[in-house]
Amino acid sequence: MAQSASPSQPTNPAPPVIFAPQRRLAQRARMRRLAQRPDAAHFLADDMIEDMLDRLSFLRHSPKTALVIGDVRGALATALVAQGVAVTRADPAPLPGETGVEQEAPLPFAQGFDLIAVLGTLDTVNDLPGALVHLRRALAPDGLAMMSFTAAGSLPALRGVMLAADAERPAPRVHPQVDVRAGGQLLQRAGFADPVIDSRSLAVRYRSLKRLVQDLREQGLSNCLARPGAPLGKSALARAQQAFAEMADADGRVTETFEILTLSGWAKPLRAPKF
Description:
The chain is an alpha/beta fold.
């Protein structure tokens, strides 16, 4: 006689809903429209692409096929094609010639890729461990995945400005973010072999809060929380502007910091521990 599952048996809980999927998709689509402007900010993507190409050169990994996710301007895909790599481009908000992907679901590709590169799309998924598992499963044997996104420690100036704006009633304004330690745990949990985790900082100086916010929107870093705070009113915005001005240096600029976390790992059998 078959036995039913005991109510006390452990189950895998659903991941918490931190980010709103529809807001995230709308944010991504808006960013892709803004990125078409000739003066749009793209310094984060440029840094990620340069770093990934440097890593590939250092590792002497010569992929024949690659899946590139989140390459907004196509710069990484272009560089890989120039090296003789057959590139498939994908994005959560695809343009013509790209494949749409939902990173919390299995990727819609039958082919195992020698390389998967993900640029800045993993920082706002609710089920990041699940997304990493889907990426690993899309790799060919001995394939490499590299994933870069903004991480813990980013935007300290903006966080301070928003706290000043909200005064006694702080509201959720800036996303929670992954740090280096959590990144390593995530790679191991997803089954990647030889995981490598590191972070680096980019410092950018701003003359106005408006320009900082504009750069965030143009690079897909605006708020897509499931429960965001209410829009700033006139008095709160005035407090934000005042707080920003008080942070300025002698040149009238405020330095903002962006931390970029890069996770990489291989689709290899995990080594058995030696005793």
